[in-house]
Design goal:
Layout (H helix, E strand, L loop, with lengths): L1 H18 L4 H4 L2 H14 L6 H20 L6 H16 L3 H12 L1
Helix pairs in contact: 3-4, 3-6, 4-5
């Protein structure tokens, strides 16, 4: 519990530095909650590395369309999130990490 609290505090500190100014509407948004849940679901629920792997998948997907397209296609990353979520739930019900771990154990 201490490690989890410490990591949440560190990430919150970096997030506060990224936003420069914290107010309730910027700190508590539904998009952030959904994004964090997607990290865990896609990466692998119930594992330690699963959410980290999910974050490594989703963060570049969030940044790349915004960097390339700017405001030309707002919300495109949410469509990509949905496609990835459906694919993972259909083909990898244990998440990316859980599926890779099962395949590694079977070899």
């Amino acid at each position: 519990m201490v490690i989890s609290s410490f990591l949440a505090a560190v990430i919150g500190t970096f997030y506060a530095q990224y936003l420069v100014y914290i107010d309730p509407s910027s700190a508590i948004r539904i998009q952030i909650a959904v994004q964090v849940a997607l990290f865990a679901i896609v990466g692998g629920v119930g594992t330690t590395l699963g959410p980290a792997i999910g974050a490594m998948i989703f963060i570049p997907i969030t940044i790349a369309p915004r960097a390339k397209l700017g405001t030309a296609a707002p919300g495109l990353h949410m469509i990509i999130y949905g496609v990835i979520l459906m694919a993972v739930l259909l083909y990898m019900p244990q998440g990316v990490y859980g599926t890779l771990r099962e395949r590694w154990k079977s070899t």
